[in-house]
Amino acid sequence: MTSMAQAQDAQDSDAPEREVIIVTATLRAADVQDIPIAVTAVSPEQLDRQNVQDIKSLTSISPSFNVQSSQTESQGTSIRIRGVGTTGNNTGLESSVGVFIDGVYQSRPGIALGDLLDLERLEILRGPQGTLFGRNTSAGALNLTTKRPNLTKVEAFGNFTYGNYDFFNVQAGVSVPLVNDQLGLRVSGAYRKRDGFLNSVGVPGAESSNRDRYVIRGQLLWEPSSDISIRLIGDYAKATENCCDAVIVRETELQPFFAFHGLPNDGVAVFGQSALNNLQTNSQQFLNNTEQYGFSGELKWDLGPAQMTYIGSYRHFEAESAQESDFVSLNLFSTGRGSTAAAGFPRTGGPIKTMTHELRFQGSAFNDALDFLVGAYYSDEKIDEVQSMTLGTDYQRAVSAGNFGNLAGVNPLFALTALGNGGVPVNAAGNFAVNRFRQDAESFSIFTHNVFNITDNLSLTLGARYVDEKKQGSFDQLAANSPACQAIVNGVITGAVPAALRGGALGATCFPHLCGAYCPRYRRHRAGQHHPGPPAAARVQPGLQG
After folding, report:
1. 59, 96, 232, 375: most buried by Cβ count inside 10 Å?
2. What pTM value is reported for the model?
3. Given CA atoms 505, 509, 513, 517 in this order, what sign does their dihedral have?
4. SS3 helix, strand, coil % of the chain, rounded to 5?
5. Could you give the angle at the alpha carbon of 260 between the alpha carbons of 256 and 266, nearest 5°?
6. What is the pLDDT of residues 82-116, one digit of tens each?
């Protein structure tokens, strides 16, 4: 028996030790296997090996984490964990998956799509996170922590990557102690560029899903004593890109009717598996530009019985997009300064301004039998977005084909306008509207997360949260001109438009945002919650907007 025991001891001593992965998912440094939360911890080395440049690429490391963009990355990006997330091409919608960078909540997924620069830790938390973070997230959270300035020695890093589609990415940074053991500065930056991998055959030269962006971040860390730490962070980022076109995987059965209405085709030259294999699209040029800057400050103060943490931040994010959301080469419609818009037409986009404050106290009591955390959070967000849209020269014919086939004669959307305009039909080309949407959101919450250590192997976690959140939304139509809509309305009112065609003619011609004189007479609407967002037309599209 003694020899067997000695052999077992030898095997145990030869066994490789498990790598301990420390995470801060519970706002306490702990071994990832000791915390009762479903979390994936990713090191910077893993990100480098997998060539993960931003959060859209995290799927290669964590399959349960998914990011998709529809028509625009800045306003139409949704993040999902375990298939749960917020879907909608709508700036007013907040994501059910929260993104936190150095403890600061990023209010929209589009704001957080920049490069993963100079990271210390990345953690993906699955499931509701309502008692740990200042901002409640119902589906999960992505927690990013950047490297702090080194107070004792000079550090520097740099890397360069080149790939297909003329992709190149360069990152560099330096950390310098200004006062040894007390004050340090860290500056880092990244620039990434890549050609688009979706190319339009309908409009030569139009491409999508390219990259042209840069980010600069500066940090100042001051530790005047062992009990106090003050960290200030500022960053600036800009992107000038084209996104998000889509491959058409199935042609419409109504394609033969486009010739019936006087069009050479339906604007679809490539589709199906061939288009998918060759990454070919049919649309005109998309545009998606963003610019943002932010500041944050963190104070950590060890008070003895508890540690106080305060995090305050301000972020200004602004986006501009031009969407060719019909996804075909015909001149149907576009938003912003797209292909159908006149010179000098207002853009689609606007600023999102967010201010946050978070205060936490955490520590232990009763001889470490209780590990407590209690905090309060306040945020004030203001969205001011202009959305504009213009109809093109092919709009009436194409929509007549897609909605009426050959059942109502040739180009009924054009012909029916004559019934409300003295016998003269009205061309909808150039009809437009410029709308302004505002949303003000104010949120206050208190939360607590407490761990009762009953034995060395058994603990009980209790948490609670209270939230008071208010949102106000408003709508203004800054400009609109739609004579075609007015003519249809006149024909419906007089009964000249056949009853069977009234609904289709009104719905297809009088978009609520294009209605001009037909709009309600009031200019402003306020409600408890209003989500700004343009109507959208889209064909079936695969997830190719990388």
Report:
1. 375
2. 0.85
3. negative
4. 15, 45, 40
5. 50
6. 888 777 667 777 888 889 999 999 988 888 888 88
